[in-house]
Write a structure and sequence with these properties.
Blueprint: E1 2-12, E2 15-21, E3 31-32, E4 35-37, E5 43-50, E6 54-60, H1 62-65, E7 70-71, E8 88-89, E9 95-96, E10 102-109, E11 113-122
Antiparallel strand pairs: 1-11, 2-10, 3-4, 4-10, 5-8, 5-9, 5-11, 6-7, 6-10
Length: about 150
């Protein structure tokens, strides 16, 4: 099982030192200020960062800081996701986090713009899929709020 969580800002400035980006509103997550609290799915197996002026992205938790800060690369330096988005995925060997520890996203940027960071958490290593794979497309119409996750019917 896995989940996706985001940190995003519609207006970042020029930051030469690491600066917090707030987690997006998410009804399924415990969030306080600039911290997202690690859920039961506490294995970090992937990362994707997007922003035209992003120069560095770092994920930080007490358990990561006990070892080394997690500087996440590569960064998709674009306004919209690239066709082959540069993601860091290590599904066979995820990084173990501690449930309920605070997780923050820190960035540096060379100019103003938007920034989005997505983290992929799982309950363990992601096994390769075998057997029959079905592709399904679903659509929904709703009004939404920017920079927030929402439950849709």
């Amino acid at each position: 099982m896995f989940s996706i969580h985001a940190f995003a800002s519609s207006s970042i400035g020029t930051y030469s030192s690491l600066t917090n980006v707030a987690p997006t509103s998410d009804p399924a997550m415990a969030i306080s200020g600039n911290f997202l609290y690690v859920p039961q799915l506490a294995n970090l197996f992937g990362f994707y960062a997007l922003g035209t002026n992003l120069s560095r992205v770092q994920l930080s938790t007490p358990s990561l800081l006990a070892d080394v800060p997690y500087d996440a690369t590569p960064i998709d330096q674009a306004a919209a996701p690239s066709t082959t988005a540069p993601m860091l995925i290590h599904q066979a060997s995820p990084i173990k986090l501690i449930t309920d520890e605070p997780l923050q996203c820190l960035i540096t940027s060379s100019g103003t713009g938007v920034a989005s960071t997505f983290i992929f958490l799982s309950d363990g290593a992601i096994a390769p899929v075998s057997g029959r794979i079905l592709r399904v497309r679903a659509t929904v119409t709703s009004s939404s709020t920017g920079y927030s996750w929402q439950m849709l019917p």
